[in-house]
Amino acid sequence: MKYIEVDEELYRHIASKTEHIGESASDILRRILGLRVDSVVQEEPEEISHPSLDQSAPKLEKVKPVKAEPVSDFLSVLDLELLAAQKGAVGRFLFILDTVYQASTTQFEQVLQIQGRDRLYFATSKEALLKASKSANPKEIGKSGFWVTTNNNTAKKRTILSEVLTQFGTSEEQIEQLIAKI
Fold first, then answer.
1. Which residues have a Cβ under 8 Å from the Cβ of 12 and sit 6 or more positions away?
2. Euclidean distance between CA atoms 129 and 99, whole angstroms
3. Distance of alpha carbon 13 from alpha carbon 144, whole angstroms
4. pLDDT band at 44 (very low <50, low <70, confident <90, very high)
5. Rounded to two decimals, what is the model's pTM?
6. Neighbours of 181 (CB within 10 A)
């Protein structure tokens, strides 16, 4: 299997065409291009290379497809009083991510696929984020076992959250409402 880098706009377009959790980018592109989705047996890579990252970047953990129906209406489960009580943008960012985790525990590992051209945003350990960037300021998302980089500015936190919500099939209107709360 080969890996390519795509720009943010293209990534969002491909992600917006997801029909079910666990659908790979290859499956989405095959469907869009009219190719048979089941015609290629995909091998699990031993390692994912990231040409834009330095050689000391950590190996990403494999993301296993999940077939359960995801939650996409996070406004209905978000406790607005507790959100308002959070300290700063980092606190609100973590609180919303924890709400997404609590509502979709079995599908949450798909956030590990979200990363920047030169950045790792999510990992399953603090050490993995620090290895990728000494200034990551990793924080655990609740008690989930997932960690997120928090040293981004508020606009970038909103972009990251928007990508997370897009992966869960959240409507554009709701994404805008949720990211505005950071």
1. 163, 166
2. 21
3. 28
4. low
5. 0.61
6. 18
